[in-house]
Amino acid sequence: MNAAAANIGVVGLAVMGSNLARNLASREGNTVAVYNRSRTKTDELVQAHPEAGFVPAFSYEEFAASLSKPRTAIIMVKAGGPTDAVIDELVKVFEPGDIIVDGGNAYFPDTIRREKAVRETGINFVGAGISGGEEGALNGPSIMPGGSDESWVTLGPILKSIAAVADDGEPCVTHIGHDGAGHFVKMVHNGIEYADMQLIAEAYDLIRRGTGRTPAEIADIFAEWNTGELESYLIEITAEVLRQVDAETGKPLVDVILDQAGAKGTGAWTVQTALSLGVPVSGIAEATFARSLSSHPEQREVARVLPGPGTEFQVDDADGFVEDVRQALFASKIIAYSQGFDEIRAGAAEYNWTIDLGAVSKIWRAGCIIRAQFLNRIADAYAEQPELPVLATAPYFADALTRGQAAWRRVVIAATQAGIPSPAFSSSLAYYDGLRADRLPAALVQGQRDFFGAHTYKRIDKEGTFHTLWSGDRTEIEAEDTH
After folding, report:
1. Do 391 and 336 form a contact (C-beta atoms < 8 A)?
2. Is 186 among the residues known to form the active site?
3. What SS3 class is residue 144?
4. What pLDDT shows up at residue 476?
5. Contact assessment for residue 407 and residue 329, using Cβ atoms and an 8 Å cutoff
6. Are 365 and 172 in contact (CB under 8 A)?
């Protein structure tokens, strides 16, 4: 092994790590050191891909010695304890100015904690969200790195060399912000992904139940939708999934797959964080809860005795209903992205990050799971108005919501009357109506809170904070605002 032969290293050589290492090695100017706790995986990767010119290491000391300074290593191991263990080992063999990158799906508070601890050694720590799955890792992901400005000087060119490239030639990577900013944005990306997937599933369910069309016929509908404003990776693969026939039974594969959706935690993190920030992300929340409900078959089995509407759902105008569902899907999708960007803005304010929302939308245009044509429109909206308070109010999206709201309402009404669950459609519409309301019933909630807990309230006609003495003569008094 040649000392200091590599400019970048990868620790953890499971599928994602191996594919990322191969991607790095395929780009001009990169020489990649590789290390895995199990020597077998390192040997297998090096032997399977001699063209990559990997520099194998079989200890952390060898790994560090194989890297040119500032040493840069990307960790691709399981989140949690395994990540902490690798960081501890690298800190022992790295020096001030070196860079440790966590490319896993870490929870951003863990990244903040790790960055603070590693920074005290003089070593840079970067939490980088990497989206695109195994294929993206190999051929070009969307990358969301946080970390220090100093680390970006070295890391930026390396990550740009492997990132997906948008239609305009821009690599899908940008320096998101300091400490946990990168993993925060990746978390919200995944939350939006939950909402997008649930909305598509609801659209499929409504069309199938309402029109009686087969999965293959609905696949054609999604393929057609993918040529218009709904063009996206998720719409594209939905058509492929619906066309798939199970080789064993001859049935549509979607009818053979158990209807219990899994989750790895990022959707829940998005919702939990939004709650702590006071940001409504109802579409993402309902998508997350829909997965939870699907995963409780014992409850669903018992609850089948509960009554429904008792009538079969069949629409009169199938083509018209399909178009209504398309418009409802697009409108709800706008709300999901708008809520997600609201959460990113709130997170940036809470954690003192400077995050360019337009730049975030641009790096999601290729490589990642939620890549979609209309992300260009989001980038345009933030370019025109960087401090846009609500993405849904940008002219393009406001116009789309105006055009689609009648269809959106018809779809939610039809689903409700037929007893078909459509939580993401319904909650997105409720959020839209709440957002545009002149007055909300929160006034009554404040009255109730003051009644049972003396929480006080404000008035519309004068300044100050007030409390009513609800027993006796109901006298209102001005109160010190201690809440």
Report:
1. no
2. yes
3. strand
4. 79
5. no
6. yes
Runs of H (alpha helix) within 387-477 = 395-418, 423-436, 442-453
- Where b means 16+ CB within 10 Å and e means fewer, 187-221 reads bbbbbbbbbbbbbbbbbbbbbbbbbebebeebbeb
Q: Residue 4's pLDDT is what?
A: 65
Q: Which of 186, 202, 333, 362 is catalytic?
A: 186
- Quick count: other Cβ atoms within 10 Å of Cβ 373? 16
Secondary structure letter of residue 352 according to DSSP:
T
Helical ranges in 125-232 per DSSP H: 133-139, 149-162, 181-211, 215-225
Q: Which residue has the higher pLDDT, 483 or 72?
A: 72
CA dist 373 to 161, 234, 235, 362, 418, Å? 23, 11, 11, 11, 33
Greatest Cα-to-Cα distance within the chain, rounded to the nearest angstrom? 88
| Distant-in-sequence, close-in-space partners of 250: CB < 8 Å, separation ≥ 6 | none
Secondary structure (3-state) at 100: strand
**Catalytic (active site) residue 193:** yes
pLDDT at residue 474 is higher than 80: no
DSSP 55-91: EE-SSHHHHHHTBPSSPEEEE-S-TTHHHHHHHHHHH
115, 193, 286, 343: the active-site residue: 193
235-276 per-position pLDDT tens digit: 999 999 999 999 999 999 999 999 999 877 899 999 999 999
Of 388, 208, 199, nearest to 286 by C-alpha is: 199
Q: What is the pLDDT of residues 33-75, one digit of tens each?
A: 999 999 999 999 999 999 999 999 999 999 999 999 999 999 9
pLDDT tens-digit map of 147-199:
999 999 999 999 999 999 999 999 999 999 999 999 999 999 999 999 999 99
Is the distance from CB of 8 to CB of 158 less than 8 angstroms?
Answer: yes
CA angle 325/330/207 to nearest 5° reads 20
Quote the CA–CA distance of 268 and 191 in Å, as a whole number: 8
Q: Name the token pair of 56.
A: 């194998």
Distances (CA, A) of 4 to 155, 219, 404, 417: 17, 52, 59, 68
Confidence label for 1 from pLDDT (cuts 50, 70 and 90): very low
How does DSSP classify residue 155?
A: H
- Within 13 A of 287's CA, how many CA atoms are on the CB side? 32
Task: Examine residue 70 and say whether the peptide bond preceding it is cis (omega within 30 degrees of 0).
Answer: yes
